[in-house]
Amino acid sequence: MNDIDKIDRAILNALQADGRLSNARLAELVGLSETPCARRLRRLEQDGYIERYRAMLSRQSLGFGVVAFVLVRFAVHDRTLADRFEREVCAIERILSCHNVSGSADYLLQIVARDLDDYGTFLRDQLRSLPGVTAVESSLSLREVKADGRLPVS
Description:
Layout: H1 6-17, H2 23-30, H3 34-46, E1 66-74, H4 79-90, E2 95-100, E3 107-113, H5 116-125, E4 133-140
Antiparallel strand pairs: 1-3, 1-4, 2-3
Helix pairs in contact: 1-2, 2-3
């Protein structure tokens, strides 16, 4: 991040807050005219600082009332098995994130479900049948305190 300056950081912060900003509004917010702002934005995209643009959807409006954080353990640590597990996890939409972690578990998943019954069925029928899975430990979110998703760029 050494090759970006204060204005680039301001652009990144503004876009994290509102990815639908027009170039004119973005330029105004960061104190540039439109052409240099567009040029900087293009460079930030090309250099990989901006991976993509997307909308943040409302979990509640879409009927997902349960968020679970799940520790997944393997009994056997085999690269082929882990690759299969990761491929299958990536294909399941309700698994929002999957991290290969250190510690007592092998993976940490974030999963959404409509309700507890839906989550229980998913756990029984899909999660426990994934390749390599020998144990799962669920923690259910009682209340979301922060879900900004923005990275610090200051």
